[in-house]
Design goal:
The structure is a single chain. By secondary structure, this protein is mainly beta. About 5% of the residues lie in helices and about 30% in strands. It has one helix and ten strands; from the N terminus they run E-E-E-E-E-H-E-E-E-E-E. A four-stranded antiparallel β-sheet has the order 7-6-9-10, with no helix packed on it. Strands 1-2 form a two-stranded parallel ribbon. The radius of gyration is 29 Å and the shape is elongated.
């Protein structure tokens, strides 16, 4: 008695130890790729372009572009300032979870011109310091400059979107 036993040929890599092993293949087509373990994260200091399997060996140094430079708390005074009040609605929307969380005010050039702690508060204010005319360098906000805000929450940095604020002397 004869039985019809034709099996469709499915070409692919049939080596179970290969990077591209194909479980559906039943005929080897010489396409197998050797497994090469190493660091596959392109942002790591020791990224290996030849690796095709990550072996958890990636290392990140302090100059790596994934590191973030957090704005520091404002320290100083320039003699004149403007205060911005922040109510409970705004502060609760920031979801500050770190007990050292703070809000910073920045000029368009990135100069920190004010800061205030916000963790656990239902309302607060932030003093925005202006440039003083006593020194030649710009060390505060200038008239009609747009001020932006960022939340520093532990090691995380967030842009805070509020209505546009112009510094008025």
């Amino acid at each position: 008695m004869l039985h019809d036993s034709c099996i469709e040929v499915i070409e692919g890599c049939t080596d179970a130890a290969a990077f591209n092993f194909d479980t559906t293949a039943n005929t080897d087509d010489n396409s197998c790729i050797e497994v090469i373990e190493g660091c596959t994260d392109a942002t790591a200091f020791n990224f290996d372009t030849l690796s095709n399997i990550d072996d958890n060996s990636c290392e990140f140094d302090q100059t790596n572009t994934r590191d973030c430079i957090l704005p520091s708390v404002y320290q100083g005074t320039t003699g004149s300032n403007m205060s911005v009040f922040m109510n409970q609605v705004l502060l609760s929307s920031l979801n500050a979870t770190d007990e050292n969380a703070y809000l910073v005010a920045l000029t368009s050039s990135g100069l920190v011109v004010g800061s205030t702690s916000i963790y656990g508060l239902s309302q607060t204010s932030i003093a925005l310091w202006s440039d003083d005319s006593q020194t030649p360098e710009i060390d505060g906000a200038v008239a009609n400059e747009v001020i932006s805000f960022q939340l520093v929450n532990g090691t995380d940095l967030y842009d805070v979107f509020m209505p546009s604020l112009l510094f008025m002397e």
